[in-house]
Amino acid sequence: MNGAWAALAAALPNDWEQATLLGRADFGEGPLPLLVVRGTAYDMSRVAPTVSMLVEQGAFDPDAGEALGPLAELGLSADTDAQRRILSPIDLQCVKAAGVTFAISAIERVIEERARGDADSAAEIRERLESRIGGSIRSVVPGSQEAADLKAALIEDGMWSQYLEVAIGPDAEIFSKSPALSTVGWGAEIGVRSDSTWNNPEPEVALLADAHGKPVGATLGNDVNLRDFEGRSALLLSKAKDNNASASLGPFVRLFDDAFTMDDVRGCEVTLRIEGEDGYVLDGVSSMREISRDPEELLRQAMSEHHYPDGFILYLGTLFAPVQDRDVPGRGFTHKVGDTVKIASPRLGALVNRVVTSKDAAPWTVGIGALMRNLAERGLLKD
After folding, report:
1. Dihedral-angle region of residue 213 (phi above 0 means left; psi in -120 to 50 means alpha; beta otherwise)
2. Residue 276 and residue 282: Cα distance in Å, rounded?
3. What is the block-wise mean pLDDT of the chain (383 residues), using blocks of 10 residues?
4. CA pair distance 154, 168, nearest whole angstrom
5. Keyword set for this entry (predicted)?
6. How far apart are CA 51 and CA 232, in angstroms?
7. What is the pTM of this model?
8. 3-state helix/strand/coil string of 250-303
């Protein structure tokens, strides 16, 4: 087994040879939609030149594509200098994210807000909030009368927050994470702003939906977050979330079929492992069984009254609360350059990325214009 394949094989779902996987690769001429069915890879670019078009056509028939042979023999690598590279599995889709969808993350967001982005104040605020609302917020159904009663009680106590509004109120927090084509894939570097001093990964399941909001598959994602920026003001959400290389997805989208359904997403457990060059190790787990809103309800709210002609992908949020201290007691976790982040789930695989600053990460240069020029030069837009 060669090195490139060994690395990719370790990132695939545990039953990948029985799965239908959708992704993107570049064999040196430009990106192409890649369909993997029972271990065999197919170039679908002559069927549809982009993943978004392939999804809109529902064109997942491998016989319509060009068989490339076993995935194990393609030599796909995450190395930017490799002749055959694996890319983020989406292209023209809008990139959306749901926030504060787990009780723990709701409490942590309130901590950020009350600490005004100051990690030194977090421990005391966390203890006070947990003792007051830890149990009740975990059991309440968002938008219910019970949630409304809890809100009234917290307002009376002076403990209400905009984050609790989206955690237990009728409307979920749905925001735009990054521009189309800006996401990075498995093995790529991920970026945090160089001026951020309190930040963390957000290990999540992400759903791929077509233009009508119908889910077609799921993948793993890292919704990289800057806690200091968002904590200073919710109006800094775009600076906290949308930075160069701050959104990763992959390695593939697993398409829904008889063997993999939305119920598998609902029961999914996502593990997180961070290994620092300083020897620091952090392990965490996020169980989708503890999500406050059903994934299909989050899709419905993301769709809302929008139009997504190229479809969209939706990060579903995380249970992970980065409270384990790294250097200074009480300051919790923050990234250091060189951290390796591994997000994994047995039926979706493993998404592995290395942390750098956003200014040092590979620049995003292939936008929509560059992609269309490339596809035209390859004769893929003639029809």
Report:
1. left
2. 9
3. 87 97 97 97 97 96 97 92 94 96 74 74 73 67 83 74 83 96 98 95 97 98 94 91 98 97 97 96 92 95 96 94 81 93 98 98 96 96 77
4. 12
5. Hydrolase, Metal-binding
6. 38
7. 0.91
8. EEEEEECECCECHHHHHCCEEEEEEECCCCCEEEEEEEHHHCCCCHHHHHHHHH
